[in-house]
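Exercise 7. Predict the joint structure of the components listed below.
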Amino acid sequence: MSESKESKIVMYATSWCGYCARARQLLASKGQQWEEIDLDEQPGRREEMIEKSGRTSVPQIWIGERHVGGYDDLVALEAVRELDPLLAGEDRADG
Amino acid sequence: MAEVEHRKVVIVGSGPAGYTAAVYAARAELEPVVVAGLQFGGQLMLTTDVENYPGFPDGVTGPEMMELFQKQAERFGTKVLLEDATEVQLGERPFTVKTASAHFTADSVILATGASARWLGIESETRLQNLGVSACATCDGALYREKPMAVVGGGDTAMEEALFLTRFATRVTVVHRRDALRASKIMQERALNHEKIEFAWNSEVDEVLGDEFVTGVRLKDTQTGDTRELPVEALFIAIGHKPNTDLFRGQIDLDDTGYIRVTPGTSRTSAEGVFACGDAMDPVYRQAVTAAGTGCMAAIDAERWLAEQGLA
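Solution:
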């Protein structure tokens, strides 16, 4: 496994949002770091999130090239044990 | 297979009830583990401002409060596992609690699994979830600035959501099946007097409208059956809760609506050594502070029971 294989994580979030807080804690518990785009501070980037994800809710999370979705989607991956491999960069991007 | 780990106390659930039970159990040196679940922190994670929890005169946000609860439990040696309980066996001792990666046996179990928001259960609601339909105003409200929105429900949660949404919405319509609210008086007054909030009485959501995103709701009059369309870009569902007790069904006594039955004045369930606290056993008060209070009761009841059994 190469050093640079770990997937980069991007999360659109707001400061009030409990699912965002859960996503942060779950990712942190797995030793992950991520880039966070705060839509309270940058409301103009909401349109960009909707365009990229097709969804209007937060959080919206990308792991590498893959749009995972919200916290429930993150949990669904964890439930079938696909989250750790995806974080480790073992998933083929499906766009 | 996970190695089997034995604990004196396993706590299932991580809202104010679960974490308070953990603080007390940990301070009693029972070395509890909290199976927090992936919906850790419970319903308070979806609450903006908690203004009625004593000790926070300026209020606190739900997620902040739950982080503090967790830290306090961990400070005294509680182990917190961010995984769902997948199997709970309460029929014989020691009890067992399993998760995806862990297998615990336990001398006593504290059930603090709380309750979850109910959904309307119509197809268009499911199809448009995350596309304008939400059960969490505090999560998604800010995303619909300067748009009209609606909230379904007539209780405190619905009023809280509607009041929160007035920060962003041009207008918030509260859709309620009856012609009177269930909410507490103070919340009713705040909502009824708010200039941005209007009420659709005797109305239920017949369909959520929109192809890609929510564009409106079709409301049906519960008296006449007439329908009308209300243009909104977001719909927030706040129609009550159901206790998260499916895992325990058939193992301990539940009431008709699924709440865990306890001996009045205690946290004891029908299974000796199994204790319950918080919203999973409380259809009446359902407050953070009462959940914390019953969490404390459950830890003390468990500690005394373990001592009686010579297990503490």
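Discussion. The mean pLDDT of chain B is 95.
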